[in-house]
Every structure is written in structure tokens, then in C-alpha cells.
Amino acid sequence: MAAPTRRQPTILTVAEHAGVSRMTVSRVLSGGKNVRPELVERVHASVAALGYRRNEQARSLRPGQRSGLIGMAITNVANPYYGEFVLGADEVVSGSGRGLLIGSTSEDEDKERLLIADFIGRQVEGLIVVPTGARRHLLPAALGGVPLVLASRAVAGVRADTVLVADVQASYDQVSALIAAGHRRIGFLGTMTSVFTGQRRYEGFRLAHEDAGLELDEDLVLVGQQDVESAKAAMESLLAREDPPTAVFCANNRNAIGAVRALLGTSRRKRGARPTALVSFDNFELADVLGIPVTIIDHDARDLGRQAASMLIARLDGADEGLPQTVELPTRTLDYGGTQI
Amino acid sequence: MAAPTRRQPTILTVAEHAGVSRMTVSRVLSGGKNVRPELVERVHASVAALGYRRNEQARSLRPGQRSGLIGMAITNVANPYYGEFVLGADEVVSGSGRGLLIGSTSEDEDKERLLIADFIGRQVEGLIVVPTGARRHLLPAALGGVPLVLASRAVAGVRADTVLVADVQASYDQVSALIAAGHRRIGFLGTMTSVFTGQRRYEGFRLAHEDAGLELDEDLVLVGQQDVESAKAAMESLLAREDPPTAVFCANNRNAIGAVRALLGTSRRKRGARPTALVSFDNFELADVLGIPVTIIDHDARDLGRQAASMLIARLDGADEGLPQTVELPTRTLDYGGTQI
DNA sequence: CTGAAAGCGCTTACAG
DNA sequence: CTGAAAGCGCTTACAG
């Protein structure tokens, strides 16, 4: 038998059942201050008997009340990464007594715009967005004063609290380490150049060359790979060159896994006497047991979610009323022999 | 400068700006039927000028209106799995014009109860739950008629639409294949025995032995491993036996990855002349390149999310008013030499 | 085609 | 300590 959609009891139902006014019920529900203990008792009994649950939508309609909702727009790359990100944000959001309304943009600017409009219509108190890059619907005028935190990526011209990973610094450090270890021809496998993190990681790559006085060979830079298959093909094309790179920097783990697959599918003779060293921005499971020298630039996606949510909650609770801030989360290096030559 | 939290325009603000009544604005907002074209024009102009956005909370307060919210409670195992699950559900839910309210229970029954109470207070139209196993707060009386879909796991005594993976059948098939290939001592690495999927996968394991007339050695059954570290330790203890198993069935990918790590960390001499064959329930990346014979029982977590959401939406839209249904999603086998001996 | 009235479920003053 | 009145932003009849 399908569950009957019977009418939910309201505050009036409870009031009548308990023989008091709606106000008394309301008072009991919000703590029971200034109510005779006997009535508190009676109201609680009625609430239990009727299975009453306060309608939060009606409650939040009153001025000064908050919806208790945070809108979160993520990009849904084919990457387990964002699951962790959501969980971290949820920790903080639910800890503040609020709920997380979530939607995916699939890197589509129109979807992002519609999703944010929908969130605002639903009276979210704040927004956490992994932005596609479009600017207009993130401007204060479009948001109608709803606080915004950007995560993973910044958007030029949008002044908002932002949590980033130390993309440039970490990439710079690891590429510099490769150069210091003697590598002179270093490949780059990256995502679409329009992606903020991709640009930043390439910037670190480029700066490391510049500061070492090493000329960067643009022929070894392959971008636009968004999945493992295309990354594998890109790596194979690098390996097939007359003078292949001795190390490859992978700007995300999709590219790193593609690179690993290409290396494992290429005979040792073909890929040279020495193994090609890899650096992967983003961790991936089993990286340490592949027998391929790889250095991982790791960061905690869950912590990214926590930080973004914390910044937002601080704004909502008035704990932070200063200028928009940008926080860069540090990375951690896991070395499985990647910088050797 | 922090974004000013100015008062949002209401339908009345728009009405005054356009020089019409609130009703006319309301009509225009809901399609513009029976309104003079000129007024439709004027209202749209005012909406744009004021940046007005309809308050969905107020709208849904009216009887007969729906909140447009679906509550989703997941368990947040340390597994990328659930990110995919959420994304699949979101596809369907947002496709129906609704939004996904999400929370994590961390396998905690109390958190689940509170989360569901919160969802109901927020007037969700329906619930998708990966249940911890507690029964009471999932009964129709507790839900007040809000439709429920269980995902991944069933709960004894709770009659609700349920989407499962074909745990028993797939496990049975793969263990039977191991036995047919000549394996006589097969290990089992599993999660907590309280977990529904763990029980089901063990049941398939047991039935395969029974039907083959092969006695199951309880000593080779190790359960309770919830992460890679403990799984690795469990596998090591299996390998250290005098008469180690020739194959091991892993009830989820955490256990499989632990097993892989144990095998790769054990010298070939110690682990015998032939490699230990593995079966993993759940896929994991790079399984095919490890040089370890492994058979994967794969299923699409995103599809699980889609199915759960579809069943719920069908109930909400009245497309399905029959008895609660249970759907078992099929699995796919990826064979990287796991059944060989 | 248009609007004044009533009410969804709740809470904030205000009055006792 | 308790309650009648008013109103949050919207939409559903009802009347013109």
C-alpha cells in the first residue's frame, strides 16, 4: 500500500489538541521560555501524539528569519574529487544548523546561471561555487546581496571570498625540483586552457623554467585532455618523439593516470633506458605501487570544502565583515621517486 | 566593500514599479496567460529593473504547491562512490525542476534520524536514503507520508521503493567461476557484517560453495575491514597461513585495494608459485595494470543514483502508484585474468 | 483581462 | 505567563 499523503498537522492542530493557543505552542517549540511547565508538557505530548513537525518554510518567511539553506554549485568533472569536496562542506554547514542545497553545472555557464537563480529563489543564505568562469551572474547585483564563496577557482572581476589550492607555488616547486635533478626536457599534460587551475599550474611550470634559465619547449606542452583516454594518447605522442621528454608534469590526476597507462603500455626499449619521471598534481590511488617514478602534489579536497563553508558561515554569522579574502590551501608532496633521473 | 544585504524586492515592489496589482505580476510570472500583452511587457521590464526573484518559500507555502525539494541522506563511506551516486540523482532531480538537499549520516543512526526530521521540516517532497539500517524513523508514521526510496541497501521491515545492486547474484557467479577454475580454498575479505551489502555479498560467496559441494573454510573469512589499511593487514594474515588461499574474494574496493597492496608487498616466493587470484566487488582505477590477476564486479554508481531518483519522481508525479518495488541493477564483469589458477 | 479579499503556517510585537 | 492581532510573500478562488 502506497503511503497516504495525508495533511500534515500544523501549529493550530497542535494548539487545539493541547487546548492552548498557537502562540503557546510556538513558544514551547522555540525553547519553552515563559510558559507554565504544565503547558510545556502538554504541548510536547500533543506534538508527539500528532507527529507534528514545524514547517521551516513558513517559519523562514517571517522577516529576520533565515532559510537555513546554503546553495552549492559544483562542476562535476569526471573526478571523485568533488564528492570529497561536498562532504567537507556538509560537515561545516550541517554543524552550523543549516542544510546544503546542491547542484551540478557540468562546466556549463548557462547551467550555472540557472542554478544560482534557482538557489536565490529558494532563499539560500549563501553560495559556494566552483565557478565555470562566467562573471556576470556572480556579480553582487545578480546575487542580490547573497554572500558568495568561490572554491578551487577565482573569477576575474568577481570580488568574493575565495579558497584556492596553492597551484602555482606547488607546480613551481616540483618542476624546479625536476630541473635541479637534471631534467632538461619536461613535458606538460594539462586540461583545457580555459580552466583556471590549469592556467595556474602551467604558470608554475613556466616560471620554474624561467627562473632556472631553461628554455621551455612548447612542443612538449599538450593541453585540452579532460579524460584518461585523451591523456594517454597525448602521453603516447610525447613518447613517440625523436627526443622525448625525460620527465612529464601532469596538471591533474586524469592526465597522470593517462600518462601512467601510456608508460605501462610502451616497451622499455622504446621509452628509453631510464624511466620517464612523472609529477602529478592531485593524488591517485595505487600511485606508489606502479614501479614508475612519480611525485604527487596532494591536497585535501575535503578540507577545501570545509574551508569554503567556514568562510561563508563566518560571513553569515557576522564574524567576518572585512574585505573579501583569498586563502590558498597548502599542498603536500608524496615522492615515489619522481624527481630522480 | 562587503556586499550590502539589502532588502529583496517583493511582488508588491514590482507591482508598484509597473503600476499594476500584485495579481497581475503573479499572473505574468506564471506564464502571462490572460494578461494584456502591454502589461506583460511592463511587468517583465520591472522585474528586470528591480532584479526581482520570486520567493519559492512563500510560493510553496500555499496549499497544493510543492517545495521542489528532494532530501538525500548518504552514508559517506570513505569511498569516491557516493560522489557519483549524488551526481546521478542530481541529473534526474534537477531535470524534474526540483532541487537536491543533501546530508551525510556517516553510518550513524542518530544522525540519520535527525537529518530526516530536518528534511521533513523543510517540506521535502520525497527522500532518497542510503540507510544505516535503523528502522523506526523510516516507517510511514515517522515520515508523515513523504515518499521514500532506499538505495544500495534495504531495511528489514521497511516497505519502500528500493534500488539495489545484484550483490548476491554477481558474487555467486564470480565465486562459482573461481571454483570452476579449480580454486578450492577461497578467502573472503569484507566490511562490517552489519552492512547490508556485505551480508549479501557474503551470501553469494557462501551459496557458490554450497552449490558446488565445496566446504567453506571459515578461517579464510575475514570481515570488519573498512579501510585500505585494515584490509591490507587482513590480506597479509591470509597470505601468512601455512595453507594460504589460492584466490580471494573482496567484498568492496577498499578491501580489494588493501589486498593488492598486500600482494605487491609480499615476495613472490612467500606467496607461492602462482599468483593469488582476486575478485573485487566494485571497480578501482588501474586495476588492469597491476600484473595481478583480478576480476572486477563493476556497477555504475551514477546509474544507481539516477534509478533511485527516477523511482521517487515517478511516485511524486503520480506516474507510479503501485506497490513498493525493488529493482536490482545488473553488474558488469571486467576480467583481468582473475579466474585463472 | 484585472484586482480586492482571504489564507497558506508561522512568529513578532503588543496587550493583558 | 498567555493570547488576539497583524503580517511575512505569495496564489487561489471570487467578483467585476
Structural commentary:
The structure is a homodimer of 341-residue chains. Chain A has 341 residues and is an alpha/beta fold. Chain A has helices at 11-18, 22-29, 37-50, 56-59, 81-95, 109-121, 140-143, 167-180, 196-212, 228-239, 253-264, 301-316; strands at residues 69-74, 99-104, 126-129, 148-151, 161-165, 186-189, 221-222, 247-250, 277-281, 294-298, 326-329, 332-336. In chain A, the strands form two sheets. Chain A has a six-stranded parallel β-sheet with strand order 2-1-3-4-5-11, with helices on both faces. In chain A, strands 7-6-8-9-10-12 form a six-stranded mixed β-sheet, with helices on both faces. In chain A, helix 1 crosses helix 3 (37-50), helix 2 (22-29) packs across helix 3 and helix 5 (81-95) packs parallel to helix 12 (301-316). The first copy, chain A, starts with 10 loop residues before the first helix and ends in a 5-residue tail after the last strand. Residues 1-5 of chain A have low confidence and may be disordered. Strand 2 of chain A pairs antiparallel with strand 2 (99-104) of chain B. The first copy, chain A, binds a DNA duplex (16 and 16 nucleotides) through residues 10-12, 20-24, 26-27, 30, 34-36, 39, 54-65.
